[in-house]
Amino acid sequence: MEDVLATGPGLSAIAPAAFAALVATTRFAVSTLNPAHARTVLVLGSVVAAAGAAVVARAPSVPVALAGLVLAAAGTAGLFPTLLSLVSRNVVESSRGRATSIVTVVSYLGFLLGPVYVGLCASATGLRGAMLAVAVLGLALAVLALPLLALSGYPVTPRPAAHHGAEARVPSAHSS
Length: 176
Description:
10 helices
């Protein structure tokens, strides 16, 4: 905000606060969704995050940049919890801890490498170009989400309840 849109430090402090507030709000909302919507959350979230980053990259003013940050926050907020949910529901219990750890480590690598990626892109193309590079990552995730889910063995199309529900995977107390 300060470097590209020439705002003061007070006004530019609104950006991370708006992002964090939207992430928290969106995560609460996403947590109420039926798990059958996981694929939609991953694809739509990635597209919305990419759109938000593109809006930030092209923003002519602070209000437009804040709107882009809101979109990016809303898009990214549900991705990590949705991935954890997929792992916890679709991995056998004996491997669940390891699978959850892998998803978490990859996520933390994103936190560590994301700023490096943005910095390298910004040094080559400027901050606006770096935000477009972030948008490209969001689009890549949107394109790859369904094929990667299919490759992982997670059903890309919903199965009938009798084959996909908890009842089909866990014997009931009444079965012998």
